[in-house]
Amino acid sequence: MDLNQENARLRDLLDVKDARIAELEGLVSDRVVSFPQEWDLSQIQSEMLRFLLKRPGKKESLHAALYWDRDDGGPDVRNVPVHVCLLRRKLKPHGIEISWLPDRGYFLSDDMKLKIRRG
């Protein structure tokens, strides 16, 4: 295995571990974030938004956080960008944007996090 392949493998492993940490943080958190009913978010969209409120995540991290409890591993990781697209569509009318950078993945700016928490 060359250095680039090992680096990619380790990054993927780190993304999975980050997702697990986020999932565990959610379990021990004393504050459950709920979203306005008029946003009409699905369960997956709500979980994804809760994840992004805590940390940025690449599609692999989001996938791991969303489907950690499924024996089959959940749907293909390539579905994550579709979920993000649908979530962005629902949040846009409320002035909330999900950003993306190649090295960070999907994330919410501090301003967006504040808007979400205010509902």
Automatic annotation (TrEMBL):
Domain OmpR/PhoB-type, residue spans: 38-108
Pfam families reported in the protein's UniProt record: Trans_reg_C
Sample GO molecular function, one term: DNA binding
InterPro entries in UniProt: OmpR/PhoB-type_DNA-bd (IPR001867), Sig_transdc_resp-reg_C-effctor (IPR016032), WH-like_DNA-bd_sf (IPR036388)
Superkingdom field: Bacteria
Gene3D superfamilies: Winged helix-like DNA-binding domain superfamily/Winged helix DNA-binding domain
UniProt keywords, alphabetically: DNA-binding
Presence of keyword Manganese: no
One Gene Ontology biological process: phosphorelay signal transduction system
SUPFAM superfamilies: C-terminal effector domain of the bipartite response regulators
Name under which the protein is recorded: Winged helix-turn-helix domain-containing protein
Organism: Roseibium aggregatum
